[in-house]
């Protein structure tokens, strides 16, 4: 079959467009230049980004978490660096579990919460609450401050950090409210519960938390407050930078290095 020269030219142009990098690129949103990788600001802060793996309350990687990294606004990252500098001489390091959380990840949580049959991780993360009550009790919501980019979930770890075993899917689960020696062996100091524990024992000022556990929670809260972070009543690990640059904007770019503006394109500091 023969094509007219004009048609051959059109076909060639179409093939070139399809083969071009621009055509292959996705339409994924990217982060404003105010967002950075925490490791680029302070590489000493430990990171255990739970939602990229299976050791979380849904038991699988969460939609939107493409890489195990903490993305956060620069002002919040710099405040975390200062907190870390204050804690290291005292024998502690920060460890982050979650930072920026895309709206699609929040939507994934909502969809999971609406499935009454998916209770794979109940024994660890919500042992004493029926899944049907997670919305009512405020553990799952349709919006999260994490999506604004200046909220972080974190804890304290003694230095040098002790080794921590990997979570193996299918392994026996222990309630997040169990004593530290019985629940999953996270290398954090004893905060009275595990991370992401859907239980009132996670309330920052729960009166059942005393002694060393109380001292550890207070140390974390004081260190964060000193650098401009506000905690919340219901989760000892959750803090938001008070000077957040996007207090009313909820972003939906994926957690991946490719979402960030290249460092050499940002103004030098």
From TrEMBL:
Its cofactor is Zn(2+). Its EC number is 3.4.13.22. It catalyses: D-alanyl-D-alanine + H2O = 2 D-alanine. The keyword GTP-binding does not apply. It holds the Pfam family Peptidase_M15. It comes from the Bacteria. Zn(2+) binds at residues 146, 153, 238. One of its GO terms (biological process) is proteolysis. Catalyzes hydrolysis of the D-alanyl-D-alanine dipeptide. This is D-alanyl-D-alanine dipeptidase. It comes from Amycolatopsis antarctica.
């Amino acid at each position: 079959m023969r094509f007219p020269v004009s048609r051959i030219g059109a076909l060639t142009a179409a093939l070139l467009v399809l083969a071009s990098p621009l055509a292959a690129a996705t339409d994924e949103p990217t982060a404003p230049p105010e967002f950075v990788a925490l490791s680029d600001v302070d590489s000493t802060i430990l990171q255990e980004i739970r939602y990229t793996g299976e050791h979380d309350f849904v038991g699988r990687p969460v939609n939107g978490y493409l890489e195990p990294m903490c993305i956060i606004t620069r002002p919040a990252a710099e405040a975390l660096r200062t907190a870390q500098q204050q804690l290291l001489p005292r024998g502690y390091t920060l460890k982050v579990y979650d930072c920026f959380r895309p709206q699609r990840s929040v939507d994934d949580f909502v969809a999971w919460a609406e499935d009454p049959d998916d209770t794979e991780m109940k024994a660890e993360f919500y042992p004493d609450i029926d899944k049907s009550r997670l919305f009512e009790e405020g553990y799952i919501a349709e919006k999260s401050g994490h999506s604004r980019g200046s909220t972080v979930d974190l804890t304290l770890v003694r230095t040098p950090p002790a080794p921590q075993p990997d979570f193996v899917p299918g392994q026996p689960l222990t309630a997040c409210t169990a004593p530290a020696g019985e629940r999953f062996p996270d290398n954090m100091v004893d905060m009275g519960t595990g991370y992401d524990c859907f239980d009132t024992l996670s309330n920052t000022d729960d009166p059942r938390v005393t002694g060393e556990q109380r001292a550890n929670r207070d140390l974390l809260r004081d260190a964060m407050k000193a650098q401009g972070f506000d905690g919340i009543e219901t989760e000892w690990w959750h803090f938001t930078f008070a000077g957040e640059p996007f207090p009313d904007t909820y972003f939906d770019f994926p957690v991946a290095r490719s979402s960030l503006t290249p460092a050499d394109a940002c103004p030098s500091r």
